[in-house]
Amino acid sequence: MSDKNVSKGAALWHGRFETNPADSLVAYTESLSFDQRLWADDIAGSHAHVSMLVTVGILSQSDGVAVLNALDQVAQEFATGNFVFEPTDEDIHTAIERRVTQLAGEPGARLHTGRSRNDQVATALRLWCKREVRRVRHAVLDLVEVLDARADEADAQVPPMRLPGYTHLQHAQPVLLSHHLRAHAWALLRDVDRLSDALVRLDVSPLGAGALAGSSLPLDPQFSATQMGFSSVFANSLDAVSDRDFVAEILFDIALIGVHLSRIGEEWVLWTSAEFGFASLDDAYATGSSMLPQKKNADIAELARGKTGRFIGNLTSVLSMLKGLPLAYNRDLQEDKEPLFDSVDQVLRALLALQGMISTATFHVSAMSSRADAEALVATDVAEWLVHNGMPFRQAHGVVGAIVRDSIATGRPMVDLVREHSQLGSAAAQLFHQGVAVQRRSTSGGAGPLASGEQRERLHGRIQQLKGRL
Question: Are 143 and 354 in contact (CB under 8 A)?
Fold first, then answer.
């Protein structure tokens, strides 16, 4: 296989080399295929950089205006889809600089003064992250509001909708449906908090760090940082160009969001099955089978599970890439973008799809409540009834466990055995009436109606607080 040299155009480092880069090198090292989505952020960083060069007197006013006008024209070309890439464009940053130089002439060659692609790339990526992480945060909060709205609907039913709560996927105790839905909402609110924390830490401008050691020119990194809307400036130039902690942190946050969405997805796969029958999906948010006419599949829920492995893989990819890098910049860092872009894209799609799926689904009250009222789910309440009447819990646990065992062995209903028990009787048998057990969940944060009302107000307050901040 031959390996020709690129004959058209010159690399940015052409002065040091006698020949142009080989085709195979260009093909292997290019990043334009994925980093072109940073065009707006690169132009924003270049705008700030040029304005700074003019302010400190490195660039004349006229040259600065020429370059800024060229940058604006390039932005317009990208916005309208008219920007034309050339074979020599290695990445989005060189493509923009090449086009600016074509438009502005000699002043365009001054655009890169006092700047390296190392701090340029890091700056553009941080700007992109600031915008996109906010989008993810909003989308997570939108899903929280969907869960909360469905919880309110469930509580508005008379009686409030209930279902069995599970441990080890075995029936445990009855809970209100609103309580179950809000459990997922609280987990997602922690994700919103984590994303907000990540935004604070990534809000640092690396522009002015140069390749690794700053510059001998009288640059003003604080000026350019303020122009771009960063809250602070790098403290160490080596760290500034090599830091990708913010990428790893965002990928972790998205991976954990994925885990939370996967758990929701797993439950909806179960809930919409014939065996559970707790809910059914709107036709717009389900798929069918090419062979089986009766099928209605919860593909959104299944992919919420399946894509979580992708999120975890993207995080692992970046952490593995970072772990052995010496300071400062290494080309390995180019591998931060595809995992980041992919995770952001996929989690936004997942959040939007789940919002639609959950908001339009139908809950089947009779199927849920009949399982919630199963006798076995009252066992703990019977034990606590004995505790209320003075019996130590461990002893009460043994008494009720024996009743459960006898009911299974004889086939007799538990309620009959409780009614006949010398230490229980008809008063304890009242616990088996429909909906009574869930009504008794009264502790703060618990699954009963009183606690549910308190939780509703607390969750609503937290949502409004976060919306105000966002």
Answer: yes
DSSP 211-232: TTT--SS---HHHHHHHHT-SE
Residues assigned a catalytic role: 168, 289
Provide the residue range defining the domain that includes 97.
14-113
Does 194 lie in the same domain as 49? no
Q: What is the pLDDT of residue 8?
A: 45
What are the angstrom distances between the C-alpha of 119 and each of 48, 165, 178, 205, 206? 13, 52, 49, 9, 6
- Which letter does DSSP use for residue 8 in this model? S
CB of 255 within 8 A of CB of 137?
A: no
Q: How far apart are CA 248 and CA 254, in angstroms?
A: 10
- Pair 232, 130: CB distance under 8 Å: no
pLDDT at residue 10 in the model:
58
- Does 87 lie in the same domain as 153? no
- Residue 93 and residue 124 in contact, taking contact as beta carbons nearer than 8 Å: yes
What is the model's pTM? 0.93
What is the per-residue pLDDT across 16-46, written as a single tens digit (0 to 9) for each? 777 888 888 888 889 999 999 999 999 999 9
* 314 and 399 inside one domain: no
With tokens 């604070």, the residue in question is 200
Residue 217 in any domain: the answer is no
Q: Is 250 helix (H, G, I), strand (E, B) or coil?
A: helix
Do 363 and 465 belong together in one domain? no
CATH, residue 455: 1.10.40.30
Instruction: Say how many C-beta atoms besides its own lie within 10 A of residue 87's C-beta.
Output: 9
**C-alpha distance from residue 370 to each of 98, 154, 272, 405, 439 (Å):** 69, 16, 16, 22, 15
Same domain for 74 and 206: no
Contact 164, 154 (CB under 8 A): no
Transcribe 29-49 into DSSP letters. Answer: H--HHHHGGGHHHHHHHHHHH
**Last residue within a domain, chosen from 340, 370, 400:** 370
Query: Which alpha helices (DSSP H) does 164-229 contain, by range?
Result: 177-202, 221-228
Nearest to 204 by CA among 285, 122, 139, 140: 122
Calculate the alpha carbon distances from 447 to 162, 186, 362, 373, 382 in Å: 10, 14, 22, 14, 17
